[in-house]
Backbone:
């Protein structure tokens, strides 16, 4: 669960930073800001950036999910075997 929270928090920070940079550049170039387009561009930038920048956190989360799935499968198989014996 910790890995999910860390990854999600870092994604949100990356989105906020991307939005701030895009909005700042937009204001510097045009003098105004289109919040919708800044948000769309920030989503794209943060999505691409998170693929490269947050790879270690994503892999840690994936390992954790795989471990939990393996334990759940082992418990299920154990319960199924116990039921078959009875």
Residues:
């Amino acid at each position: 669960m910790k890995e999910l929270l860390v990854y999600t928090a870092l994604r949100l920070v990356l989105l906020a930073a991307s939005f701030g940079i895009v909005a700042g550049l937009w204001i510097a170039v045009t003098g105004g800001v289109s919040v919708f387009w800044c948000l769309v561009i920030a989503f794209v930038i943060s999505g691409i950036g998170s693929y490269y920048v947050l790879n270690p956190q994503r892999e840690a989360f994936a390992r954790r999910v795989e471990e939990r799935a393996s334990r759940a499968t082992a418990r299920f198989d154990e319960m199924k075997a116990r039921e078959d014996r009875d």
Notes: The helical segments are 2-30, 35-53, 55-85. Residues 24 and 31 are 10 Å apart (CA to CA).
